């Protein structure tokens, strides 16, 4: 299981690096070096889950290029924390998906609820560059994501296909929560740490 997580992180990191260096925005930045103060204030606009990690990596590179070490440890520690959060989120998704059994509808739906919550928490923490809409069914008290805004309840299927309400969506790579939406992912991460 840990090998798969490491492989996933390495693949994600590799894809991010390929995307970052082929970006026209960065191509323009390569030609002119900016002082540390200016680059540290810039917003990270990518929705990639590695954006925060790379923000600290690039800050470390800039500090070292300027022969400075005063903030290197701080950025390295923050990078480690962000990577730890990413790994925990991916482990939750992996555990939920590997535990999902499809022997019958009830069993499959119960497993899907766990997978959905882990996936929703991931999207809330790290974003998603595609379109995703979150829905919540108050009858069964479960949530899910889907690729469009036309509700299709996976917990009741044909019995109550349209039961539920939209609770959020991704927009520009970020998760936007509707008022009165789902609980924060941090709460679920803390619950998982306690188990």
Plain-language structure description:
The longest helix has 28 residues, at 72-99. The chain has seven helices and four strands. A four-stranded antiparallel beta sheet has the order 2-1-3-4, covered by helices on one side. The chain has 195 residues and is an alpha+beta fold. Helix 4 (51-65) runs antiparallel to helix 5 and helix 6 crosses helix 7. The protein has helices spanning 2-21, 24-31, 36-41, 51-65, 72-99, 105-126, 185-194; strands spanning 133-137, 142-146, 165-171, 174-177.
Helix amount: 55-70%
The structural class is alpha+beta
Overall pLDDT confidence? 75
Anisotropy-based shape: elongated
Order of helices and strands: HHHHHHEEEEH
Q: Could you tell me the number of beta strands?
A: 4
Topology:
Elements: H1 2-21, H2 24-31, H3 36-41, H4 51-65, H5 72-99, H6 105-126, E1 133-137, E2 142-146, E3 165-171, E4 174-177, H7 185-194
Antiparallel strand pairs: 1-2, 1-3, 3-4
Question: Can you tag this structure with a few keywords?
Answer:
alpha+beta; 195 residues; single chain; four-stranded antiparallel β-sheet; 4 strands; disordered C terminus; 2 domains
Would you summarize the structure shown here?
With 195 residues, the chain is of the alpha+beta class. It is built from 7 helices and 4 strands. Helix 1 packs across helix 5 (72-99), helix 4 runs antiparallel to helix 5 and helix 5 runs antiparallel to helix 6.
């Amino acid at each position: 299981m840990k090998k798969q997580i490491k492989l996933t992180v390495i693949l994600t990191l590799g894809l991010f690096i390929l995307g970052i260096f082929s970006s026209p925005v960065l191509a323009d930045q390569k030609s002119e070096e900016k002082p540390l103060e200016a680059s540290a204030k810039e917003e990270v606009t990518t929705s990639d889950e590695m954006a925060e990690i790379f923000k600290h990596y690039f800050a470390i590179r800039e500090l070292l290029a300027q022969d400075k070490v005063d903030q290197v440890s701080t950025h390295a520690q923050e990078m480690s924390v962000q990577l730890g959060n990413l790994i925990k989120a991916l482990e939750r998704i992996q555990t939920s998906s590997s535990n999902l059994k499809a022997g019958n509808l009830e069993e499959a739906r119960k497993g899907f609820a766990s997978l959905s919550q882990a996936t929703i928490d991931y999207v809330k923490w790290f974003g998603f560059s595609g379109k995703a809409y979150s829905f919540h069914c108050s009858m069964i008290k479960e949530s899910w994501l889907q690729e469009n805004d036309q509700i299709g309840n996976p917990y009741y299927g044909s019995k109550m296909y349209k039961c539920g309400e939209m609770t959020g969506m991704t927009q520009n790579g970020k998760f936007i929560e509707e008022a009165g939406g789902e609980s924060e992912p941090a709460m679920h991460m803390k619950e998982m740490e306690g188990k």
